[in-house]
What does this fold into?
Amino acid sequence: MKTDNKTAMQRLREILDAGQEPDSDMLKEGIAQLLQERDALVGSLENMAGWLARIAAAHIHKDVHQLKYTLDEFIEKKVKVVTKQAPNIH
It folds into this structure.
């Protein structure tokens, strides 16, 4: 059971860096975390592949309206604009 806010991989890294051998429970937690991260990444990559396929298809067919629609939809649904206020220099 976790007693801190570190992830299983962070705790595993600390154990390995200290030259110790992790126990089987620690290895299981680390592997479980890696599998979750892999699944999230695969889902994101599949999603992006779908968007790229739609954009490429519109471009190949020279359908400017579909291309603009797809790009606008992609920007609306997937792009997050982050702005930071510049610090005031006096």
About this structure: The longest helix spans residues 24-60. Helices lie at 8-17, 24-60, 64-78.
